[in-house]
Amino acid sequence: MTRKLSTGISEKKREDAGVSSLVEYLIISGILILFIVITVPIVTTVFIDQPTNTLTQYAFIDIGNGMSTRIIDFYSVIPHYNKCAISTKFDIPDDVGGRDYRVEIIHSAERKDDFIVISRGDYEARISLAGIGATENFGWAGGNTTASGLNRIEYVYPP
Description:
With 159 residues, the protein is α+β, with helices and mostly antiparallel strands. The protein has one helix and eight strands.
């Protein structure tokens, strides 16, 4: 709307509503983008990484206990002091939490105990073989494997 002030001069009414809406939109959008930039790394750590790490710890312990049970069951059927060769195959999960891992059987000579160590770069679980490494007849257990394919436990009594 225009209004005539005098001859040839008119005053125009200023419309600032469109500009203030745009500025308000830009400020609110900027604040929301800032919140997203701050919260995405936190949400990833809290809701993805921590549950995956907890799952990894429990899965490593479960895999170690399962292998320990297989080895102890195998040990219970070995005919000691008889010439024989016995082997069994078993399967373990290919990955835990989408990542590979390594399984090792480590002999500890000073403690007379064997351990199953399941590890990945940042986690490790040690499971005892329930004292069978301390027996005279069992001898030495050792070896390592990755989780791909079938794994084998073997007992050979030399002639």
